[in-house]
Sequence to fold (127 residues):
Amino acid sequence: QVQVVESGGGLVRAGGSLSLSCAVSERTDATAWFRQAPGKEREFVAAIRWTPGDIIYTYYSDSVKGRFAISRDNAKNTVYLRMNSLDVQDTALYSCAADWLWGDDQAPTRSNGYNYWGQGTQVTVSS
Fold:
């Protein structure tokens, strides 16, 4: 059983920055961040995937592209999400997902393609 633990959420003013961490108990081929705001469906935020040759691919939703950056630390099996220029619309519960099930032919951006999930960390952006 792979364990996924998020950390780093909190309260920040609009325009500010915050970094989230996702510690995964073992290496998987892809890890992603999703978020869910109250009354809304869960949405994709960002994902990172690496090949056996350690080529890294990153994916972003249009709403965060240019503001958020996903990265990883192999030695720690940890994926980070750096969030800049935060807006009130970014307020949500951010959840990390690991172990992409659908192979390399599809971009790892769909929530139902991941096997393991963390409990989530709350990000609140005030105006």
Remarks:
- The chain has no helices and eleven strands.
- The mean pLDDT is 95.
